[in-house]
Structures are given as structure tokens and as C-alpha cells.
Amino acid sequence: MRDRRNIIEKTRLMHPLRTNTKGVIMISRSRLLLALTGIALSIAAFAQSPAPAKDADKGAAEAAGDPLGRTNPHDTVVNFITAVEKRDLARAAQYLDGKLGPTYKAELAQQLKLIMDKRLSLDLNSVSRSPAGDADDGLPLNRESLGQVENGESMLEILLDRVQRGKKPAIWLFSAETVQQLREFPKEDAQVSGMEQLLPAALVEKSLFGVALYRWILVPLTLLAIAVIAWMATGLASTRIQRFLRQRSGWGAFVAGASYLGPARLLVFAVLMWLVAQFGATLMVRQRWTHLALLLMALGAGWLFMRAINPVASGFVGYMQVTQQQHRIALIHLFRGVAKFIAVVTVVLVILSLGGVNLTAAIAGIGIGGVALAFAAQKTLENVFGTVMLVTDQPIRVGDLCRMGDTVGVIEDIGMRSTRVRTAERTIVTVPNGQASSMIVENFATRDKISFKHVIGLRYETTPDQLRQVLAGVRKLLAGHAQLQADSARVRLVRFGTSSLDLEASAYVLATDLDTYLKIQEELLLQIMDAVEAAGTTLAFPSQTTYVSVEAARSDAALAGIRRSPPEEADAAALRAAS
Fold first, then answer.
1. Distance of alpha carbon 64 from alpha carbon 122, whole angstroms
2. Model's pTM, two decimal places?
3. Phi then psi for 441, rounded to 5 degrees?
């Protein structure tokens, strides 16, 4: 066996992708997934400058009456940043309000962009996309605030105003007040990074698709470095964490049968990417890298949760089985499904929020869709709520002998949708939980004692003394039995039946198991038969006794003779009979 393991190990080292165990193959797939994610992110991160407006966007802007896209605060800020980064300062100057010359405005536009890049912390998705602006921000109407920046003792508040010029549609501009404060604010120097100074001028000055050539090299290398660090950190921590968890017997389900390396590496990668994003050179770079990092965090957290929920639920199911709480297993399955649904919805909402979608409208849409789904799946939801009531109220449990409607049997399983009952004919009856929670259920397994009640029929030939002897014998039997409740024992003559003298014997048997009860019942019935026989009588059985009167028989015989004699003799016979 040891030689075989050595051979397998050597083969694994030579061909790791072909001969690894299942766990190693899963890690390789995770590595591939992480690499692909890094490539995708690198492509997305290349666009560190906002892309030029598409033709459709331009057409929409022109249709709205402003070809520069200043119809709402968000578009004004984004298009202003785009113009400055494309070094179109004449266009950027048109996003500033105030009566200044175009050349001076162009210089102020470049200065404002530098201040926003170095000192302003802003989430562009939080800027209103409504043409009327945000009416709930506490500011006057037609005014928006992007935040405040400080430089020493100077303070600059970056404001946007909605300006109406003549009969043209209203547009949003950086306010004249902000422009005036900008003129007095200390100027920011447009510093060239040390890396750009060391790189060849061709890589810095030339660009591809609006991105400097050196960034096509820097961004993938940065992402690759982050991926390697995340890979090594999670690999080193994984073994120790799993050993720590396995040493805790109660936590064994958290690590059994699932691989957390993939989602853990994605989470660490996203955290490192977020940290790198805080050192971005421009506001737009920080914005996009931060959003990508938060998106990956949401995906990684959701992935990790989906990986963890199954083994955790399995651990609880095993605990319920060991502790004989099978009736709660259905509730665990229900919670697992609900938790997965909530996790997916949460990740989707986070992604929509990062994409600039108004979550209020999205949640309202989900609510309306939920109502429609509830109507469409009314029966299914009824069964789900029935499951919750069966598990919480516990009128029945797995293994109980019950009567549900016309069905009598043992509860085999309480599922998410229905309850399965094993009948005496060994068939399975499936009862929807919505019905099971509303019908009358008789649970025989919850009895603390079982009633013994039988009618003893004695023959009518039994004399009163024999009857008294039978009553005394049966009373003594019931009162002295150790497995009967003494104060519940009753023996009485209850009726004169159609074919017997009926005695009723009743008592409670101190047993909850049906087999034990049947054994005691059999013993009692045999001893009652002995008491009846000792009294000199017997048990009755259905019978009928016919009594014939002698005088009636003689009259019938005389009438028969009259019918057979001649008329004269018949008359004489009739006279004799009459006399």
C-alpha cells in the first residue's frame, strides 16, 4: 500500500492536472476561475478614463436640447471629467457657470479636476440622475452638492446649479459660487507620478483606445500580483483553519464535504483590490476599481455562503437525527432554501446598486413580483406554511401512530410539501401539509395510558348467585393487577341484552406502547374467562329460544280434525269444541 501511495505521489508531481485527487482538481478549477476573473477585470479596469458618449447617448442629449449632456447632475459630472481627461478643456469649460473668459474657465476646469481627483471622496452613482435633482438632500431646489474639500485653512464646496438660459431647456453646471471659490483656492500641481518619469515617453504619451500604453501593462501586472497574494494567503491559512475547526466536534459539519478555497480566494482578492483602489490617481479610477472590488466582494460572499449552507444544514440534520428530533428536519430544509433565496436576492441588489440602479424602485418591483408569485403559487405556499405549523406546534412527529382524517398509520416523513403516512396495509398515503395542519389529527403515540373496556356477555341461564360470583372475581382481578390504574377499575352489570346478561369491565392500562397493551389485554381476557368458568356459567353467544304453549297445540290439532271430517260431523265437532 505504501509503495502504491509513493507511485501515486510521484505521478501527481509529474502531471498535477491529470492525476490530482478530486480536491486538487477543484482547486485547479478555482485557479482557472480566478485567472479568468483577473483577465476580465484587467480589461474592465483599462478604461480608466470615461469612454466617449455613444451615438445613442448623443442623440438622446441632442433630443433633450443639450448636446453636451448636462440635463442632470450625474451626466454633468461624468461628461466634465471625460472632457478634461481627453484634454478637451474648451469643452470642459462649458460645464462651469459664471461670466469668465473661455481661456480662464479652461484653466479653472483643469484645476477643479485636479482637486476632485486628489481631495474629493465621491461615489458617482450617488449623484442624482433626475433632471430635477435630489429633492430630499436638504439643499435648496435646483442645487446639488458633491462634497467639500480642504486645503489648509481654505474650504471649497463643490456645488451644481440648475441654470435656465432664455428659452432653452434647463442645464446643470458647476455653480458660479464654486467657480468663485475655486479662483481663491490654493492651486493643485499636476504632478507626474514617479513611474511615469521612469518609463519611456512613448509608453506614457501614446494611448490605445484612450488608455495610455503603460497602463495596458501596469493593470494586468497589478491584478496578477493581487491574485498571487490572495492565492498564497488563503492557501497558508486554509490548512490551519480546517484543522482548528475539525478539532471542535460541533463544527465538523462546517468543513466536511465542501471546498471554501475558491470563494475565500475571491474575497481576499476583492479586499486587496479595494485597498489598491484607494490609491488611484484619479476620481474615476478610484470609482471603477472600488466598484469592481465591491462587486467581487458581493459575489465572493454569496459564493461562500452557498458553499457553507449545505454542510451546515447537513450538520444540523445529523444532530436532529441523533437527538430523535426528526420532525424538525423539514424546518431545516425550509430555512436552507429561504437562506439561499435571500442570499441570491441580496447579491443581485448589491450588483444593481453598484450599477447605479435605484434600489427603491427595484425593491418595489420585487415586492410586486412577490405578490404575483404568491398568487400563482398559492397552494405551494399554503403547504410551506403548513410545514412550519406542523414543525412548530408538533401535533405529530416522525414515528407516531396517528389518525389523519380517514387514514390511520405511522408518520414516516414530514417533508417540505407533504407528510407521508405508512398504513397497516403497508401502503404510503401522502397528505399535503396545508391540509394536515388544518384537519383534526388524533395522535395515539401521545397517550399516557390506554383504555381497557370490554363487555362480557353471560348466558341467561346464569343464576343471580353465579352472576354475583363472576362480578366479584372480575373486580378482584382488576383491582389486584399491577399494570392497571386501580382507581379506574370498574365492573358493572349494565344491561339485559338480546341474548346475554351484559357486564362491562373497564380500567386504564399503564402502558403507552401498543404491543405491551395488547399483551396485558390478552392476559386479562383469559383470566376473565377463568373467573366465568369458576362461577359455573359460560359466556353467551348469539342465540334464540322458542317457547310453544300446550293448549295452543291442542286447539290447532282439533281445528285440523274438523277440516278433514264430513259436514255433519264437523258441525257436531264444532259444537263439542264450542261447549
1. 27
2. 0.54
3. -115, 125
